[in-house]
Amino acid sequence: MKSKTIIKETKHFVKFELRGWSFGEFFGLAIVFCIIGVNALLFNDSLVAVMSALCGILYTFLAGKGKISCYFFGLLGSGFYVYLSFKNALYGNMLLYAAYYIPMQIVGIFKWSEHLKWKTHEIYKTSLGLDELLNLLVISLMGCAGAIFILKFMHDPSPVIDGITTVLSLVGMYLTVRRCIEQWGVWIIVNALSVMMWLKVALHGERVYSTIVMWTVYFILGIYFYIKWHRELEEVQEPVRD
To answer: What's the rounded Cα separation, in Å, for the pair 70 and 215?
Structure first.
């Protein structure tokens, strides 16, 4: 009896998570997965890099759709990415994922569950006020400067890019948990710099091509979902809770 209940609830959950997807989104995701698969076979990419890419792309896509299931793939992908970063001496990214991303994603599960639309089970989107946006900008600039200094001291091979992506990823994850549209602007910058960082790693002989594809797809999705969230914010507002 218990197994039947679990299966029924799982089907119900999956049904809601797939609701609201367009054919173009399904097709685009399938194309991306095919590219990663072909790329892995042609270049003999590492299994960890492939799994990190697949989980990471699913996380980003589902987060953009406002689906709470994104955090399941986010936690899996973060584990793979910690290993990749450690192996390639990208200590800023490694610490970021291990000490911040994983705990914040757990927090995100509870935070998002409090702000779901009843019909679609998607989150209500929000945006920052001008004062909070300016404060966050100042903190981000100071944080980037401090991170670059520390990573240079640690002999990080890419202290500038690693430092900026680390700090902005902290900000981006914070904004993601808060359901703010400004996260996508931050992620666009992080993703562009991360493509450059992993290209450098690949040029040194590491088989991380799936990781490069992953960050490139992140960059494209960042632009796509910024536009999508902007349109939705103009149409729908979250009801005030008592």
So the answer is: 17
- In whole angstroms, give the CA distance from residue 209 to residue 54: 12
Q: What is the pLDDT of residue 242?
A: 40
Taking the C-alpha atoms of residue 117 and residue 214, their distance in angstroms, rounded to an integer, is 29
Q: pLDDT digit string (tens) for 153-191?
A: 887 777 888 889 889 988 999 999 999 999 999 999 999
User: CA-CA distances (angstroms) from residue 225 to 137, 174, 181, 216, 241?
Assistant: 21, 17, 9, 14, 26
- Rounded CA separation 50/33 (Å): 10
| Under 8 Å between Cβ of 49 and 211 | yes
Supply the pLDDT for residue 89: 78
Ranges of the chain with pLDDT below 50 = 240, 242
What one-character-per-residue DSSP string does 56-113 give?
HHHHHHHHHTTBTTHHHHHHHHHHHHHHHHHHTT-HHHHHHIIIIIHHHHHHHHHHHH
CB atoms within 10 A of CB 16: 17
Cβ–Cβ under 8 Å, residues 126 and 137: no
Please tell me the distance from the alpha carbon of residue 86 to that of residue 89, in angstroms, as a whole number.
Answer: 5
User: Burial code of 110-121, b = ≥16 C-beta within 10 A, e = fewer?
Assistant: ebbeebbeeeeb
